[in-house]
Structures are given as C-alpha cells and as structure tokens.
Amino acid sequence: LATYADAELIASITRKAWANKVSLESGAHRDTAGSVLHDLQSGGGLIAFINDRPIASMRWFNLTPTTRELKRMGVLAAYRGEGIAQKLMTEAIHIARQDGVTDLRLAVRVDQPQLVKAYELVGFRVDDTLIYSHANPLSPPPVVMRLILV
Predict the structure, then answer these.
(1) Digits of tens for pLDDT over the chain (150 positions)?
(2) Contact 53, 24 (CB under 8 A)
(3) What stretches of the chain adopt beta strand conformation (E)?
(4) Which end of the chain is more exposed for a tag (fewer CB within 10 A), N or C?
(5) DSSP assignment letter at 22
(6) What pTM was computed for the model?
(7) Count of H helices and E strands in the chain?
C-alpha cells in the first residue's frame, strides 16, 4: 500500500510508464506529487517492487464509501508482459472488498482499446451509462468499465 510519502514516487512511475504509450494531452504526463497526494488522501494506491526497485503503481479515488474509481495504473516498459498489472488489479480488488466497496470503476483511453479486453479478464464490463469523473477534457471520452463486487 502506498503512503502519502510515496506521492512523488508514484507520480514519477506514472510519467515514466505512460511515456511514449499515450498521447501527450494525457494528464498522466503532468502528474505531480500534489495531484497524486490528493488521490491518496481521497482513496489510496499501490506500488509494485522487484528487489526494492519500484516498477509499477496505481491509485484510486473514492466517489462514495461504496464506489471507487481506479486510475493511472502504469508498469514500467521493461516489466510489461510479466503479469504485474494483473497482480496490482487483483490486489486493488481485494482491498476494495475489504473496504466494503461494492462498485469499482475505471476508464480506458480510446487509444488503448487492448486494455478493455485485459480488464474484462478480471471481471470488468463496459458500462455506457457511466461518465468517468476524472475524464480529461482534452481527450476523447474514455470507455468506462465497472466491476460489481458482491
């Protein structure tokens, strides 16, 4: 679990993980310790390490006590394809259940359609009725996905 002191580390991981992966208008390129700290204070986050080296992170924002939005999962390029993202997602789902969250949401940038299938593998489904609360007005609206936890 990330602490408030990890805000700069998470911002750095996010910027590096999203570099050359998504368009420059993505807010991930401008993540700061302050923006990450806001998310951590309003929800939480995770950092994955290999041999004490931080290699991936994600965070979430609580919309209500039972509804949570996941955001900004990023795995450094050298570690992609090793199941790190799936492990982070599994842990985030486990924590959400422990916290009494019943509605878990995330958004997928339209320029990352392969991620829809990856999130479907862990149970998320596209929900066209939802609007993502952190959508970037400079980008096309994302695909919003939902996982109902019971």
Answers:
(1) 999 999 999 999 998 988 766 554 555 556 788 989 999 999 999 999 999 999 999 999 999 999 999 998 999 999 999 999 999 999 999 999 999 999 999 999 888 888 999 999 999 999 999 987 777 777 788 999 999 998
(2) no
(3) 43-50, 53-64, 67-75, 103-108, 125-126, 143-148
(4) C
(5) S
(6) 0.89
(7) 4, 6
What does the DSSP 8-state code read for residue 141?
P
Structure tokens at 121: 């593998």
- Can you give the C-alpha Rg of the chain in angstroms? 14
Q: Residues with Cβ < 8 Å from 146, sequence gap 6 or more?
A: 103, 104, 105, 124, 125, 127, 130
The two tokens of residue 104 are 């878990």
